[in-house]
Amino acid sequence: MYIQAITLFPEVFAAITEFGVTARALQRGLWQFNAVNPRTFADNPLGYIDDRPFGGGPGMIMMAPPLQAAIDDAKARQPQSRLIYMSPQGTPLQHVQVSQLAQESGLIVLCGRYEGIDERVLQSNDITEIAVGDFVVSGGELPAMMLMDAVLRLLPGVLGDSQSAAQDSFADGLLDCPHYTRPIEFQNAVVPEILRGGNHALIARWRLKQSLMRTLTRRADLLADRRLTPEESGLLREIREEMQKEQDNPMINRKSES
Ligand code: SAH
Predict the structure, then answer these.
(1) Residue 226 appears among annotated catalytic residues
(2) Tens of pLDDT, residues 30-52
(3) Domain containing residue 186
(4) What is the CA radius of gyration of the chain?
(5) pLDDT tens profile 123-139
(6) Strand partners for 192
C-alpha cells in the first residue's frame, strides 16, 4: 500500500516510519510512504501557504492553490489512491472503515493546520472526511498517523501471527478480554487460575465470556446489532444471572470473592 501525507510537517511522520511494527513493515516493503509539503507549491518566496479568513475572525486558513497542487502531485504518483481529509467534522473512524481502507492500493491523507483549509478544496475533490473523535487537535498529522497505524496493522504480514489483529477489540465486534503475564501474583491480585491450567477449551470459553462481559458493561451498543452464536447467548445469560445475583446480594458476593 502506498500512503502519502500532505503535510506542513513531514518530519513528524517519523513516529510511524521509524518506530515499531509500522517501521519494520516499511523496511520490509509492505507499504511505502511519501510526504508532500504544500509549502513546495507556495506562490511566494517565503513559502506562505495560509492567509486570513474572509469575513474576519481568528486564525489562518490554508489556501486552496498550494493544497490543490500538493493533491495533484500526490495523485500523479499513485492515481488510484483514495483521498482523505482528516477533519473533526468527518465521520468518526471505526474498525469497519479501517478495514475497508486496508483494501485500497493507495491513500492520500490531507492534514490541516490552523483553522483548517479553504472549503473549495473539499468541493472540488472527491474527498472522504474522517475524524478521530469529537474533539479538536491542532493539526491533522496525529489523526493521520492514527488512521495509518490502524490500517497498516491490518495488512497481511505487518503483525506477526502471535500479535494477530483478529483478536483485538472491535475486530470481531467485541472488546478484547483481559490479559495477564508474569508474575502470577501482583499486589495481592492473582492471575485467574483457568489461564494457568492449560485447558485450551476452558480458556477459550473464559476469554469469550470476559469479552462479552466487558462489551456488555462498557459498550452495550456493540452488542445491540450483533448476531450472537448459541455459545455467546448462553454465556451472556450466565453473565446477566451473575450480575443480577450480585445486585440482589452485593455483600455476600463480595465476601465470597475475598
Ligand atoms: N476549525 C476547525 C478545526 C481546525 S483544527 C473546526 O472547528 O472544524 C486543525 C486541523 O486539525 C484540521 O484541519 C484537521 O486536519 C485536524 N483535526 C483537528 N481535530 C481533528 C479530529 N478530531 N479528527 C481529525 N482531524 C482533526
Answers:
(1) no
(2) 999 999 999 999 999 999 999 99
(3) 167-258
(4) 24
(5) 999 999 999 999 999 99
(6) none
Residues 83 and 136 in one domain: yes
In short, whether 86's Cβ falls inside 6 Å of ligand 1 is yes
- From 168, 176, 207, 232, active-site residue: 168
Here the CATH number for the domain that contains residue 101 is: 3.40.1280.10
Does residue 88 have an active-site annotation? yes
Q: 111 in ligand 1 pocket by Cβ < 6 Å? A: yes
User: In angstroms, rounded to a whole number, what is the distance separating the alpha carbons of residues 203 and 197?
Assistant: 8
How far, in Å, CA of 154 to CA of 42, rounded?
36
pLDDT digits (tens, 9 = 90+) for 108-117: 999 999 999 9
Q: Which of 88, 113, 118, 143 is catalytic?
A: 88
pTM here? 0.94
Cα dihedral value 75, 117, 13, 166, nearest 10 = -80
117, 152, 187 - which closes a domain: 152
Look up 153 and say whether it is catalytic.
Answer: yes
Q: Are 131 and 234 in a shared domain? A: no
Spatial distance between the Cα atoms of 68 and 74, rounded to a whole number of angstroms: 10
Domain co-membership, 9 together with 130: yes
Q: Which of 77, 104, 115, 219 is catalytic?
A: 115
pLDDT digits (tens, 9 = 90+) for 58-79: 999 999 999 999 999 999 999 9
Tell me the CATH number at 203. Answer: 1.10.1270.20
What mean pLDDT is reported for the chain? 95
d(C-alpha 71, C-alpha 111), whole Å: 11
Give the residue from 93, 125, 152 where a domain finishes.
152
